[in-house]
Amino acid sequence: MAVSIIWFILILSIVVVAHELGHFLIARANNIHVVEFSIGMGPRIFSFTKGDTRYSLKVLPLGGSCAFEGEDGKVTEDRPFKGIAFPQAKVWSRIATVFAGPFFNFVLAFIFAMIIVGYCGTDIPVIQGLTEGRPAIDSGLQVGDVITRINGEHINVWRDITLISYLNTGEPLTITYKRGTEKGTVTFTPEFSEEENRYFIGIEGGTTFVDAKGLNIFKYSWYELAFNFKNTLKSLKQLIIGKLSPSNLAGPVGIAQVVDENYDAAKQYGIMSVLLTMMNIAMLLSVNLGVINLLPLPALDGGRLVFLIVEIFRGKPVPPEKEGVVHFIGIILFFLLAIFVLFNDVSRIIGR
Description:
It contains eight helices and twelve strands. It is an alpha+beta fold. The chain has a four-stranded antiparallel sheet, with no helix packed on it. The two termini are 16 Å apart. The relative contact order is 0.12.
């Protein structure tokens, strides 16, 4: 477990640092004064000042921050600093600075995807079998068909099909496929399994891999990133419409448990297996952090972007005190959500 905790801290730190580094680099590029760049939360255990920025390492390795001058409404009048306060920057500079955090998470995820795909290849959507008694077997699909679309959605990897099947609630599926040089389309309704309590399509696959050679590594890495992006969005949608229980949410404790389970499963195959498994978790977490931070909710980057977009249409900023109240309410709500998620994580562990 100790090794898993080290991996968990390392993964979380890399993902958070990438996010905050995005804010930091674009702020500096736009001449915005960064007061402090910190890794971790809570009291400082180490810090130093370079230029006009304080760099800090804090005791709890569960987050980080990039604090700009003026975010709290206070701008130094007699400025001893280089650069300008955040509110004084042009609105598009502020938008770029806020957006850079989630964007850098996607960049980090793409880098991890390139390493994983370059080493392992990727699972292509080729049908390898049709399950007896399931609807696909009578649909006209055949072994060897390459599925290209389902209900209009592009299918790039086999996991796209798995995700659609898992989330299906009985809606008909229109599947477009390639068979050699020919294309075809079939439509059928998945079948509900009382035993599994979910709907099944009845096609088998997921073990046909293609090597990512040359420039193809960029294409297949993009497919990998796109799958994780869609996975996150679809999971959020299922949560919002009530098809996914809030008890399925996981916080730091739950993530640490996932890291531990995956480490135990991978270590028997050697260090390379462990590294690739941990990169895969980091990639998924980085995409999750990027997507969630872009949600138009108070206290998140997406919420801040909403106010900046409103500023463009108004021609002037929203009064800082009003924006501050909205974000403060958001912080309280996220704090309550964190408590709920922590309770869920602990309950799952105790119930094992």
